[in-house]
Design brief:
The chain is mainly β. It has helices at residues 3-41, 71-74, 120-123; strands spanning 45-50, 56-61, 65-70, 88-91, 99-102, 106-110, 115-119, 130-134, 147-153, 158-163, 167-172, 178-183, 189-195, 200-205, 209-214, 220-225, 241-247, 250-255, 260-263, 268-272, 279-285, 288-293, 295-302, 307-312, 318-323, 333-337, 341-345, 353-356. A 4-stranded antiparallel sheet has the order 1-2-3-4. It is globular, with a radius of gyration of 24 Å. The termini are far apart. Residues 1-13 have low confidence and may be disordered.
Amino acid sequence: MSYLPRIIYGAFLHKNSCILLLEAGVETAYKMDIQRSLELLHMTIYSQSISPCGKYLAAGNNYGEIAIFSLSAALSSEAKEESKKPVVSFAAHDGPIYAMVSTDRQLLSAGNGEVKAWNWSEIVKKGCKEAWSKRPPYGSSLEVPEINSLQLNLKDNSLLMAGGDCSIHMMDLESGAFTHEFQGHTDYIHCLALREQLRECLSGSEDGTVRLWDLRTGSQVQSIEVHKHEECNRPQNGKWIRCLATDSDWMVCGGGPALTLWHLRSVTPTTVFPLPQCQQQVMFYQDLILSAGHSPTINHLQISGEVKAQIPCIPRCVHSLSINEQSPEHKVLTAAGSSHCIDVFTNFGYRAFSLVFT
């Protein structure tokens, strides 16, 4: 009968091992929860893009993660707290995701020197397999420059990208080949905008200029040194251009210089908006200009220069604004920046709720 104590002792050891393993698992999970909580405190969301159907919103953060939110679920009358969290999230890049756009089939994301594509049909089914990846021809530089801005040119099915190498690269989306490189800026390019009717591209840079490019020839059409115009210049903030948007013969741009409306044909600043903070995002919307930047507000501006409204938002610094034009029933303005929350404005006049990047 001497084997009985050994069996009991073995069972005792097995039980203790299970307890130790369980405790180790709990401790690991606890440490992971703490780590994620710290990451959420320091999260910055740099980019957003709406799906072709208008039912989903993609957001990219400083950790290289992409989260997909269901706008249709979040806007539903039966929405719960879970409806405001991602339906799927995944690691997409090694570093921050500074720019995103969507084609009719794919989500394109960029940050650490390359552009990646993800099929929307797979993403919404919780698949996150990369469809393709492309890196512009950067030459012999050992550093990999980030890509700060992406623009789709639907007229010739091309993608424009610009960033840390001071050049604009044009890629044919059909073949994946890089067809043009526009050179002229002497510092980082922060933003791009299209004048589709004239086949022109505008770019804003750390060098203080906004440049216009002919997309057919690749030649520079115009260079505007914004900070050299006294009414725009704010030397205490620098000369860098962070945001721009265009509507026919009009352009609005800002950053270090004051946010200003320009008439492009005469290259004349017509309206300087009375916003003391540096603006990082701007867009034309109906008869208004919407902007945001180094303050927790979304600014509604009239062409005349009047500040019509300043709507509070959660991020103290706003890096991305997006309007869902793809689906009338899900039409919202979303604002993201130095927070793990993405504010949703249903009538643009107040914050209805926030999506949460978990």
